[in-house]
Structures are given as structure tokens and as C-alpha cells.
Write a structure and sequence with these properties.
This protein is of the alpha/beta class and 358 residues long. The protein contains 16 helices and 13 strands. Keywords: Isomerase.
């Protein structure tokens, strides 16, 4: 029996894992390793139950910490599991420290690696995610690309073997979550907002949370927008707010909440006017659901969203953020749904099966 060991550790990976894990378990044995990179209840355990993912076989409980320390702990623990379980393939998602730790551990033990969401590039090496995704792509045996752009990025780096366009599993996940969110989530009533009368925001990148000026600039922009801003606060962002002694009461236009379960976030996304975020995943989710997005970064790996006009890069400049929100609010331009039709998990499973038939 084929054994695939899947590694997840951060919120976006839980979401991407859900549709593919179900398909894997219909065909072979899956061992699910949760590194514990995100350890908040609303950003880990809740996602497994909501999305129907089986409980992890291992939870490494690594938690937060400096990049080297966090990655090193994961690498050591994952290696032990690989030596014990001897999987036929290691499956990694995205671009987190969990991704690179799993890839390095597998490559040193000569275990084939499959990378979901391969070929993405922001070309900003200041982002640890960029380093993680580049290194992972260069040690992977199967590279599952969401778009042709991702394939071309890999070609530029000389990576052409084992590269496939599959579409994006996040499309699968969000399409599956839509009816659940519409039926089960009461988040709009809970926080007292009405559909199409608010913006949705998330902020968690170190470039914004670890820079007091940038964080204050973003909050100031949110406070001056025409509609209220619903802002679930990431644990890293909350810690920065506390360290900088920022008073949330000084921003009455912002509705601050704790981190929210995935179905609540999907519901908020469905009924929002526009998204403001520095998250790669939420940029893409906004595009999938035809919601304009102002990205609080200077670069993005999801360049298709910018090229089609659904996404504008504003950085942390409060004046630019306000102006770009005004420009994009109500946008309804060309939309090619370039990340696939919700069949990425099926496409990936077919490729993996073919790999093992060789």
C-alpha cells in the first residue's frame, strides 16, 4: 500500500489540504503531520473539524519562534517520523517554514517530494516565504502549478521535469465551503454588520506587524475609509499592538475580532465590498469570489489578480490605501477564473497515481 506523508502547519495549508486529503485517503494511506506552526485554537484545530480533515497523526507543537529555531525544530522532528514511517512520498503545501522543513528532511532521506502550489514568485527575497518556495521547488519531484505563469517561473530557473498545471486546490476548498458558510455562519449578526456594507481586512506580515510606523499607517487608513473595516486580529498582530501600546478604541471605524474559523471568514468574504490584506491566500480567495482587493504589500506572487485589475498593491502607505480603495470599490472587470474550476485535487491525484505506476 502506498503511503503519502502530508505536512501542514499554517492556516492556508489546512484549507488547501482539505480537498486533497480526502482524495488521497480514497486511494492510499495518508499520514498527516501538523507541525503546530499555528497553535491558536481558531487557527488550527477548528479548521480540521470544519473542513472534514482527519485529525493529525502527529502534532509537533513547534509553536512560534525565530525562523531558524522554528524550522530547525520541525526539521528534526519530521526526520524522525520519516525514518520511522518510511513513506513513499512527502506532500508539502505552499511556502511556510513547515514546507521547507518537510522538503529538506525528505530530500536528505531521498524520499520523493510533491509540492502543491509550486512555481509562485514575488521576486522579493526579503520575504522568508519567497526563500521557502524557491528552495522547495528545486528539491521537489512533482511540482503542481496553479497557472501557466507558475510554469514559466520554473522554466526561468531551469526546473522543467515533473512540472504540471493542475489549477489551485484553494478553489476546490472555497467552492466546497461556500454552501456551508451560507448555511452555518452567523458571523454578520454576531458582529453586527450588514452584507455589502463593510470591508474585510487581515494583517500579519512581519513587514507590517514588526514596523510600528507601517502598522499605525494601515490602521489610520482603515479608520478613514467610507465603510467599517472588519479586522480579525492575527496573534502576531495582536502581540505587536500590545507591544506598541496601540489603543484599539482610537479606531472606531474598525471592528476588531479574534481570529475566526474558516467558514466565518468565507462568509465575511462573500458579503464584503472589498478586501484589504497582506495575506497571499486571502488575495487569491478574494479573486476567486470576485471581490476587489487592496494588497498591503509592494509585491505579490499572485500577479494574475493584478493583471486582471482585481488587485492593487498599496503597501503600508495610508494615503495610497485610501485612494486605491476608492478606485477599486465596486470593480467588476474581466474575470478569467485563472486558478481553475475546482478540480485541482482530482488532477493532482491522477498525476501522483501515474508517478507510482512507472
Amino acid at each position: 500500500m502506498t503511503i503519502i506523508l502530508s505536512i501542514v502547519g499554517a492556516r492556508p495549508q489546512f484549507i488547501k489540504c482539505a480537498p486533497l486529503s480526502k482524495k488521497i485517503r480514497e486511494w492510499c494511506t495518508e499520514i498527516l503531520v501538523h507541525t503546530g506552526q499555528h497553535y491558536d485554537e481558531n487557527m488550527s484545530d477548528v479548521f480540521f473539524s470544519e473542513l472534514g480533515i482527519s485529525h493529525p497523526d502527529y502534532n509537533l507543537q513547534v509553536g512560534s519562534g525565530p525562523h531558524g529555531e522554528q524550522t530547525g525544530k520541525m526539521l528534526a522532528e519530521i526526520e524522525k517520523i520519516l525514518l520511522e514511517k518510511k513513506p513513499d512520498m512527502v506532500l508539502v503545501y505552499g511556502d511556510t517554514n513547515s514546507t521547507i522543513a518537510g522538503s529538506l528532511a525528505a530530500s536528505k532521506l531521498h524520499i520523493p517530494i510533491a509540492h502543491v502550489e509550486a512555481g509562485l514568485r514575488s521576486y522579493d527575497r526579503r520575504m522568508p516565504e519567497e526563500i521557502n518556495r524557491v528552495l522547495t521547488d528545486h528539491v521537489s519531484d512533482l511540482l503542481f502549478c496553479p497557472t501557466q505563469t507558475a510554469v514559466l517561473n520554473l522554466e526561468k530557473e531551469g526546473v522543467t521535469k515533473g512540472v504540471f498545471i493542475t489549477g489551485d486546490v484553494m478553489v476546490d476548498a472555497i467552492f466546497q465551503a461556500l454552501p456551508i458558510a451560507r448555511k452555518m455562519s452567523n458571523i454578520l449578526a454576531d458582529i453586527r454588520v450588514s452584507a455589502n456594507e463593510y470591508y474585510l481586512a487581515t494583517v500579519h506580515r512581519p513587514s507590517n506587524t514588526d514596523d510600528k510606523y507601517n502598522l499605525l499607517s494601515i490602521l489610520q487608513a482603515f479608520s478613514e475609509l467610507a465603510y467599517p473595516v472588519v479586522f480579525p486580529i492575527h496573534p502576531r498582530t495582536r502581540k505587536s499592538i500590545e507591544n506598541y501600546r496601540i489603543s484599539l478604541s482610537a479606531y472606531p471605524n474598525i471592528i476588531f475580532t479574534d481570529p475566526l474559523p474558516y467558514v466565518d471568514m468565507v462568509r465575511l468574504l462573500i458579503d464584503s465590498r472589498l478586501v484589504l490584506t497582506d495575506s497571499g491566500g486571502l488575495q487569491k480567495e478574494a479573486y476567486i469570489l470576485k471581490k476587489p482587493c487592496v494588497t498591503l504589500r509592494d509585491t505579490t506572487e499572485w500577479i494574475e489578480t493584478v493583471e486582471e485589475g482585481w488587485n492593487i498593491l498599496a503597501g503600508a502607505d495610508n494615503v495610497k490605501i485610501i485612494n486605491e480603495v476608492s478606485t477599486l470599490d465596486g470593480y467588476s472587470g474581466v474575470h478569467r477564473q485563472c486558478y481553475g474550476d475546482g478540480t485541482a485535487a482530482d488532477n493532482i491525484i491522477k498525476i501522483i497515481k501515474s508517478y507510482f505506476k512507472k
